[in-house]
Design a protein that fits this description.
The structure is a single chain. By secondary structure, the protein is mostly helical. Helix content is about 70%, strand content about 0%. Mean pLDDT is about 80; it is low at about 5-15 and about 330-345.
Length: about 350
């Protein structure tokens, strides 16, 4: 799967190698789940990998650069509002679809994906392709990631009360603090000393990021097999979930585009708002789900994995069409970057 994650598929193929590796981790966890002592060791290794992952997130995010971007505060507030207010409200509204459309086992995961922060890499890439405000997209995605470290676990604890291990309890708060917040804050504090090392070894550490997420997925589905998750979810229920997520994505894409116009933003800013405000980060969401849901993480991450691939495929098409718009652009607009594969994983 590590080799598969580095493969570059043909341009006509909508799924990249890392997404295939994620599917491979799901299949491996389903067909060859870890049991007994191996399962216990896997749990400890997965916990350590998540802590290191969030430590690296803290090292990579420059607080100084984020503060410099506060000048465009209206745009950042708009993106944060769509990510942590509008998305969660739509997720709560989806409760009316249970159990006739959404399976109760999958609804918790659907609501959780609505609480996850936005992406950084793909927001920047698609904004650049669409000739939008790239600096704003960089700051908006980074702000969302920083805020999500604190807000997503709290929203999950409050909104998923008593549902699959994400209840608001002293134990869940302790896990969040030790596995997510403490490593992230340590990374921020030690950034001036280890930041150069992380930059110099960016490629190698990038492989560690991806491998850690694959490990989390394998551990979640290994544990899920012991609970018989595939006996509880039918193919028809999965198709229904895809349909609901397609509607959710369409609503958010339309809301961020036309809503930002009503708020008086220019085209370049509207592009950044649409791509930063309509997507959810798989790289941040998977480790969080592992901590928050514990033994129920397999069903919690499935909706996020499906939504992630869907959003990249749809946004790739929209970005290319936006890039062909004939609207005049500001002279200070940064150059357009080369298109990225539609299925590329991001953070």
């Amino acid at each position: 799967m590590a080799r598969m994650s580095r493969l570059k598929p043909p341009s006509w193929f909508p799924v990249d190698g890392y997404v295939l590796a994620l599917l491979g981790a799901v299949c491996l966890g389903t067909l060859l789940p870890a049991t007994g002592t191996a399962s216990q060791v896997l749990g400890h290794v997965s916990t350590a990998a998540i802590a290191i992952l969030f430590f690296l997130y803290g090292v990579r995010l420059s607080t100084a650069e984020m503060l410099q971007g506060l000048a465009h505060w209206r745009l950042h507030v708009t993106v944060l509002a769509t990510t942590f207010v509008v998305f969660p409200l739509l997720g709560l509204a989806g409760r009316v679809l249970v159990p006739h459309v959404l399976a109760p086992e999958l609804y918790n995961g659907f609501l959780f994906l609505c609480l996850v922060p936005s992406t950084i890499q793909s927001s920047i890439t698609f904004t650049s392709i669409a000739r939008g405000n790239v600096p704003a997209a960089i700051c908006a995605g980074s702000f969302s990631s920083i805020v999500g470290i604190f807000v997503t676990p709290l929203l999950a604890a409050l909104l998923l009360r008593g549902s699959g291990g994400a209840g608001f309890s002293a134990d869940s708060l302790l896990k969040i603090g030790l596995q997510l917040l403490a490593p992230f804050l340590a990374g921020q504090l030690l950034r001036r000393w280890v930041g150069g090392f992380v930059v110099r070894h960016k490629k190698v550490l990038g492989y560690f990021d991806r491998s850690s997420i694959l490990l989390v997925v394998y551990a979640a589905f290994s544990l899920g097999m012991a609970q018989g998750i595939w006996n509880r979810i039918s193919p028809l229920r999965l198709l229904a979930l895809l349909g609901v997520e397609a509607v959710l994505l369409a609503v958010m894409l339309a809301l961020t585009w036309y809503g930002s116009k009503r708020l008086g933003f220019e085209r370049a800013d509207r592009v950044a708002i649409q791509f930063a405000g309509s997507k959810k980060s798989l790289a941040a969401g998977l480790p969080m789900a592992s901590v928050l849901f514990g033994a129920h993480a397999s069903l919690a991450v499935l909706p996020l994995m499906l939504f992630h691939q869907m959003q990249l495929m749809v946004c790739a098409v929209i970005a290319r069409r936006r890039g062909e718009d004939r609207e005049p652009l500001p002279t200070e607009m940064p150059p357009v970057a080369a298109p990225a594969p539609a299925g590329k994983i991001d953070k």
